[in-house]
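writing this on my phone so excuse typos. first protein, seq and then structure
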Amino acid sequence: MLKSCRSKIRKAKKNLVDVRFSDNDKNLEEFVRLYSLTMDRLQAKRYYYFNTDYFFNLKYLFPDNFLIAGAYKDNELLASGIILCYGSIMNYHLSCSNWEKHYLAPNNLLDFEIANYGAKNGFKFLQLGGGRIPNDSLFQY
């Protein structure tokens, strides 16, 4: 792990950011709200916008394979991800974050804790997606 990532993880912990895992409707509603705001902030193509039914259908069609991870400070959702699990693979399906709180480094802690969750629960792989071209930031991550 890069030194800068370790520093950001320590920073998030020092700022009392904590990561929680769930599959409940309340957390999914929080994810949907923050995901929509993230897509607006990024000026994403319409292709990346999904209606609320999409997210709830994922949960109900794959109840044993669906997980929400959220980074919180004082019960405020700062960053979140939907993880789809099957066999030995965790797929980081979609993520979102509150840019106004990025200085707390919630994304780094979130990714670290998702990887730890996978290791503790017998998963062998965490597929992040992206990384299709050499200069792709996810490829470098």
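second protein below, same order as before
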Amino acid sequence: MEIKITYTIDEHDYMYFQRYALYRSKAYRKQRTIIKYLLPCICILALIFILLTKEFKLPPFIFLLVAFSAVSIYWVKRMPKLSEKKILDSIHKKNLSTDAKTSVMGERTLTFTDDKIYILTKEIESKMNWSALIGFEEDDKFLFLFVSSTSAHAIPKQKVPQWEAIKQMIETKLGESSKVK
């Protein structure tokens, strides 16, 4: 059995995958959690310190409590978006320069056979065994074929009508348990 697909990866598709990869990264999730709650913890410690001093006065303390609470709530709500934007802007600037753009975007043809997967782009012609895939994931827009924990072939479902047949072939070749965690 052979399935051949041709589709185009544009800048939007590329950045979608980068965002997807960022959110599935354990290191990013850990870093985001630490940073997200660090400032509120510092504010709480500052308030405890103020409470323990002998020159504690109620009106300034209430003002500080309200101010620290407002800053902490703003930080917890806004920080993840700011962090994500900074990282994605860096990826965009680095990987979508004119030289790098040609290797990550553009038209590509993937041919799935019983033995191999063939990849054809303007610059690259390669083939890989099914065993080279470490797994796959999907969301509502893409099917991701992972060749490492951070590198994948992203197949946009809306641009590839036969994506369900590809998914079925992948599950047959790799097994249902090969979905990347």
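The radius of gyration is 24 Å. thats all i got for now
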